[in-house]
Amino acid sequence: MAIFENFRLLKESMQNEGWIIDAFAFQYKTTNYIVLVKLYMENENRPKYALLKTEFLKESNFANRLIVPVNINGFMIETKILRNFFAIEYSENLGNILQQFNEYFSKFIPVEVNISKPDSLIQPMLNSLSKSDSEDPEKRYCFKVKRNPKGELRTVYNDNKTKILRTKLYETFEKEKTISFCYSKDILTEKTDEEILLNFSKRENSKNYR
Which pLDDT score, from 0 to 100, does residue 34 have? Predict the structure, then answer.
């Protein structure tokens, strides 16, 4: 079996469940990492043979990160960059050491998406989704849903963000792809599902009576 076969299984799970991002924890030596796993979007530059894009964040410093394309056979990056980021010492049998590192890392890769994650993993996922959607990551408080003009579809980032933050509200509009979810930085503006649905219904009815 290929060393990163789990990434192939995880990708299938993400696609089947409608996720473009996932995350898991990884520890090497004394350092804790958060690994974001992302599907390549259609407009992205995808390296040949790349299966997924991984982003390693050092838990102690999110600014210290490394983006690495992967496929089932391993990391698609220069050995020196990998060594420097993970502080892998150089030695005469470096090839064996890197193989051992890959085998060790492979044990952390999940085979399917599990949304029951600690906030330490959820927050980096939300930050990444918001930034990809050109939105302030601090906007976490949903206050309304809106029907997009001209039948425009909500972004996959807005979709996944709401799947995480407002699961039940998301399920109400899951199949209505032209509905987007609006977020604010101010917790005082946040509305309950019932309030959001009532306000949306009122707006929809007022349109029908025009």
Answer: 97
